[in-house]
Amino acid sequence: MAEQGGHPTYLWWNGERRRWEDATVHVTELGWSTVGAVFEGIRAYWDDRTEELHVFRLREHLERLARSMKMVRLDLHYPVDELSETILDLLRANEVREDTYIRPLAYSADTSGKRFAQLGHQAALLINTSPMPSHLLSGTTQTAKVSSWRRVSDETMPPRIKNLSNYRNGQLAGMEARLDGYDTAFLINAGGTVAEAPGACVMLVRDGRLITPDVTSSILESITRDALMVLAREVLGLEVVERQVDRTELYLADEVFTCGTAAEITPIVGVDKYDVGSGEIGPVTRELEQVFHDVLRGREERYAGWRTPVGVTAAAAV
Ligand SMILES: *Cc1c(COP(=O)(O)O)cnc(C)c1O
């Protein structure tokens, strides 16, 4: 069954597929258990033409999970290939036929009351799925404010991995922006240049070039950012530049957008009350959204290697 009472039938927890209702922890586990957690955010896209669900860059996401776990000293007890099969099985078991978010979460079990991570703690691993419709090509736009909060720096927290605690930084910036009447924020790093938005990387277009902060600008090593750089170069024929980006470049850019698994491509039409370009979605952003959409839904053969077909329809027919 796909949905019952607003949640999928199954999730996967510590080596077993379980019914949603049966996967519970004691209330005293709330708190420290997820301070040291790392996670992944993966999307699967449904294509109604072929009745197929495609997971985007599954292996790269799981390899990044392994790197995040290494960084925070949590042991991953499952090979990447096995986890990939686990995720495909879960999507088939839940009979998913819509755009979906897949979230593996690794944390240390049995930490209740222990403020400081004990080495050698057993790593627990949860994988759950939830519906997440795409907003690509919908015309959705955002305005942004350069936050007064700085992006966590590599000297204090590891910005390049999906460390759950880093999210407090993005939340504070996002809340400040919304209270001030903007949709999202841009965080400047400790070096004074542009890092990223809460949970999404930043790209700008100026004079026909695509520019994005480099991986030592305190950004997360984003898989979407990587994919869009490839598509911009190979499909749109743009020059792509990774370098430090100044705050004022955001104000003078022809186009700005954020990108990430959740953000997909989100056009930014104003920054600190400066219109970005004409204040509307720009042509490069539009074109990139179209190409990215076609890749994600399985309508562009060139990047088929980035997609894992789930076989939901075939599984249901058996
Ligand atoms: C996940 C994430 C991103 C986007 O990375 P993707 O791999 O493209 O999903 C950007 N910034 C932060 C802080 C993130 O956690």
Protein architecture, described:
By secondary structure, this protein is of the alpha+beta class. It has two domains: 3-131, D-amino Acid Aminotransferase, Chain A, domain 1, CATH 3.30.470.10; 142-280, Alpha-Beta Barrel (D-amino Acid Aminotransferase, Chain A, domain 2). The protein is built from seven helices and 17 strands. Strands 8, 9, 10, 11, 12, 13, 14, 15 and 16 form a nine-stranded mixed beta sheet that branches. It is globular and about 50 Å long. The two termini are 14 Å apart. The structure holds pyridoxal-5'-phosphate. Residues 41, 162, 170, 196, 199-201, 220, 222-225, 260-261 line the site of pyridoxal-5'-phosphate (PLP). Pyridoxal-5'-phosphate binds next to helix 4.
CATH fold title of the largest domain:
D-amino Acid Aminotransferase, Chain A, domain 2
Query: Which small-molecule ligands are present, each listed once?
Result: pyridoxal-5'-phosphate
Helix content: 10-25%
The chain-level structural class is alpha+beta
Tell the overall outline. globular
Q: Secondary-structure element order, as H and E? A: EEEEEHHEEEHEEEEHEHEEEHEH
Radius of gyration: 20 Å
Q: Considering the protein shown, what is the CATH homologous superfamily of the largest domain?
A: D-amino Acid Aminotransferase, subunit A, domain 2
Distance between the termini: 14 Å
> What composes the largest sheet?
9 strands, mixed
Average pLDDT taken over every residue? 94
CATH class of the largest domain: Alpha Beta
Number of strands: 17
Low-confidence stretches: none
The total number of structural domains is 2
The assigned CATH architecture of the largest domain is Alpha-Beta Barrel
**Contiguous helical run count:** 7
Percent of residues in β-strands: 25-35%
